[in-house]
Amino acid sequence: MKKTGKIFSVVMASALAVSMLAGCGASQQGGSDTFKIGAIGPLTGGAAAYGNAVVNGAQIAVDEINEAGGINGYKIEYKTEDDELNAEKSVNAYNTLKDWGMQLLVGSTTSACSIAVSENTKNDNMFQLTPSGSAEECVKYDNVFRVCFSDPNQGIASAQYINDHNLATKVGIIYDNSDVYSSGIYQKFVEESEGKNYEVVSAEAYTQDNNTDFSVQLQKAKDAGADLVFLPIYYSDASLILTQANTMGYAPTFFGVDGMDGILTVENFDTSLAEGLMLLTPFAADATDELTVNFVKKYNEKYGETPNQFAADAYDAVYIIKAAIEKAGVTPASSVSEICDAVKGAMVQIEASGLTSSKMTWSASGEPNKEPKAVVIQNGVYVSAE
Amino acid sequence: MSFLTYLINGLSLGSIYAIIALGYTMVYGIAKMLNFAHGDFIMVGCYIIFSVSAALSGNSVVGIIVAIILCTLLGVTTEFVAYRPLRGAASPLAVLITAIGVSYLLENIALLIYGADIKSFTSVINWEGVSFAGGQLKIQGVTIVTILVSVVILIVLQLFINKTKQGQAMLAASEDKAAAALMGIDVNKTIALTFAIGSALAAVAGALLCSAYPSLSPYTGAMPGIKAFVAAVLGGIGSIPGAMIGGLVLGIVEILSKTYISSQLSDAIVFGILVIVLLVKPTGILGKKVQEKV
Asked: Which architecture, in CATH terms, is A34-148+289-370?
C-alpha cells in the first residue's frame, strides 16, 4: 500500500514536471509573439444586445490595432465567450479563456458577472478591464479597472455636466429611495452640487411601492421654481413622471442618467413628451467627430446595426489596454501575473482617448476620471448635446 | 392656493382608490371573502383595453366593453374553479390563500404574454378637465369622470341591492347562506352574480386607473389593489358608501402626508392611520357591528 502510494506520487510528480515543461513550451511557441485578450458577455438570452455589442466593439478595435501593426509590434489574438448573464457561467467562460491562454480580460459586460469573475482574476492576478460593469463592487480588487462611470459616480458626472453647460439655476430631484442605484446617484449628486452654479431646491423621494402618483414631487419642484429636474431613475418610472408633468403643465428640462436609456422604446409612449429630455451617456452614435463616424461606419458594415454605448466602451477598453501595455513595456512572453502588475501600474499613469471621452485617466481604485457626455432627445432620436 | 392644489391631487388619487375599493367591498360584503386577486383583475382589464384599442387603432370604447365582458367571465370562472369548491372548507384561510394564488397566477400569465416591459396606456378620457383661478387650479378630466363614475356605481349598487329581487337575495346570502338556501335562494348563483358585478367593476376601475396613471405592467394592479383594500377596511369593509369615503380619505391623506411630512414616509403614515382607526373603531368608518348569534 505504501509502495503503491510512492509510485503514484512519483508518477504524479513527473507528470506535473512534464506538463509544466509543456506549458513553458507552449507559451514560448504560440504565445510569445501575440497578446491574448479575451472578452466575456451575455451573447445569448435577454441581455444579448449588451454582450454582443461588447464583443463586436472590441473586435473592431482588435482588427484596427492588428492592421496598424499591433501593440509594440505584437499582434493581438482575441477570443470571446458567452456567459448568458449568469455569474457562474461567467466564471466558466473565464476558465475556458484561461485554458486558451488569455493574458488580459475585457469583461465581463454586466455588473454581477463582472464581480463573480473578479474573484478569480484576483486569485490568478490577471488584469481585468470591464467596459460596462457599473456596480461599485466591480472594481473592489486592485487588478480590476473599468471604462464606464460607476453608478454613484454618475451623480458626480451629472452635477459637473449641468454646471459646465449652464443648464440650470434651480434644480429639483426626484429619486427612488428604495433602489440602491437611484439613491446612490442622488447622494453623490447632492454632495457634488455644493458650490456649483445652480442650487438644489427640492429633493423628493418615492419608493417602488409608491411609484404611480408623482404629482406631489412634481408640484414641489414646480413651486420651488426648479428649471431642471434631475431624474436618477429607470425609464419606466420616468415615463410616468413625464406624462404627469405634461398634464400639470410643468415643462422644465429633465435630466437623466443611463437608466433613462430606453425611454423611447416604451410601447405606445408618446415620445413627444420626451422631447428635450437630456441623459448622461458616454456615447452618441450621431456625433460628428472622426473617431465616432469611423467606428459607426465600420460597425454598421460589419454587423449591420448602429453601435450602442456598450460597443463604444468595449472599443475603448481594447485601446486602453494597448496604451497601458505600451506604457508598461511588457511583452507577451511575460507571465499573466507580470503583465497584470505592470499594466496595473501603467493604468494610473496613462491618459487615454477614445469614443467615450477624449481624455480618460484612472485612479488606483480602478475608477475612471473623464469628462461626462450627454445626449438630448430631438424629434424622437438621441442627438449629441454638445 | 398650493394647499388646494395638493387637495385636488389627493382627490384624484383617492377617487381611483375609491372605485377599486367598491369592487373589493362588494365581493366581501356579499360573499364574505377577500378576493385578493381583485387588483389583478384590474390589470387584466387594462391589458384587454390596451390590446383591443391597439387592434382597432385607438377605439377605446369598444376596448372597455370587451374588457368588461371578459373580466366578468374571468371573475365568474375564477369563482367557479378556484373559490366555490373551497367555500365549505373548514378554514376560511383556504380560500384566502387561493385568492393570493390566483393573484400570482394572473400576474405571471400577463408576464408570459406581455413581458415585463411597461407599456404606455392611452387615456380613455380625452378631456382636459376644468381650471379655476386663471389656470392655477386644475382638476383633471379623468378625476372628475372617476368621481362621477364612482358615485353612479355607488347609487346603482345601492338601488340594486335594496330594491331588486337579486339584490335582496344577495343580502340574504350574505347574512346566512344556509337559511337563504332554505328560503329558495340559489346561493351559488347569487355569489357568482356578485363576482360578475365585482369583476365588471374591476374592468371599469382599470380603465380609469390606467387613464390617470398611464403605465401598464403585470404588477399595475397589485399595489393599488392593496391600497384599495386598505381604503375598503378604513371605510368599513362590506359597506359600499364606506368604500367610497375610505378611498377618498386615503388618497387625500397620502398626498398631504407626502407634501407636508415626508415623501418617503407617506405609506408608513397611511398604514399607521389605518391601525389607529381600527383600534378606535374596529369596523371602520361606516362599518356596522353585527351581533353574532350563537
From this structure: 3-Layer(aba) Sandwich (3.40)
